[in-house]
């Protein structure tokens, strides 16, 4: 059974490009994004890791640690990081600083249900399944708050991942949810658990569109 929203992110010990880590210890009290890659020296992943390096300040501003995982060893990872910086640096300075887990024996990929035997488009040279392109957002209590699985053919959209982090962090602080295509600064939805009486004090500027759909600006 795969990981579900609300599960505790499983703990593990691993070799990474930043040294050996115990995952829960490494997480500390931070938010985190764990994202997996089919394999080192693959084209789509090379562009993705460069983008994550470029967006490091955006993750840091939100108190989010990032960590990648790929089913290769540390030697490959270190060589690949040079390629990523070299290629990514053609577009903007790229310096991969976040750790990448070396999951050569795929133990962590199995623990996080990152292998999909049904996906024929995601196989290595021997026909074995690569790690699929997954993302986990983990909160400071180590609870899984988002899971995403992308096909091998399609690079992820890190704007979307940051958008979800913004939504989750805001929803943890205020009794709100966020509507379709919401972006930081847009109006939000008053949580259904907030009574109309409470809404008058909590969100004085709110608008009632339907009895079950109330929106409000939110000063950040
Ligand atoms: C890629 O990251 O480019 C990739 C990886 C596995 C299969 C297809 C593409």
Write up what this structure looks like.
The chain has helices at 23-27, 43-54, 56-61, 74-88, 107-111, 158-173, 196-202; strands at 13-16, 19-22, 31-37, 64-70, 100-102, 133-138, 144-150, 176-177, 188-190, 207-210, 213-216. Helix 2 crosses helix 4 (74-88). The radius of gyration is 19 Å and the shape is elongated. It starts with 12 loop residues before the first strand and ends with a strand. 30% of the residues lie in helices and 23% in strands. The protein folds into 2 domains: 13-155, Glutaredoxin, CATH 3.40.30.10; 175-216, Antioxidant, Horf6, Chain A, domain2 (Antioxidant, Horf6, Chain A, domain 2), CATH 3.30.1020. The strands form 3 sheets. A 5-stranded mixed sheet has the order 5-4-3-6-7. The chain has a 4-stranded antiparallel sheet with strand order 8-9-11-10. A hairpin with a 2-residue loop joins strand 10 (207-210) and strand 11 (213-216). It has 7 helices and 11 strands. With 220 residues, the chain is an alpha+beta fold. The structure holds benzoic acid.
Strands of the largest sheet, in order across it? 5-4-3-6-7
The appropriate CATH architecture of the largest domain is 3-Layer(aba) Sandwich
Percent strand equals: 15-25%
The chain-level mean pLDDT equals: 95
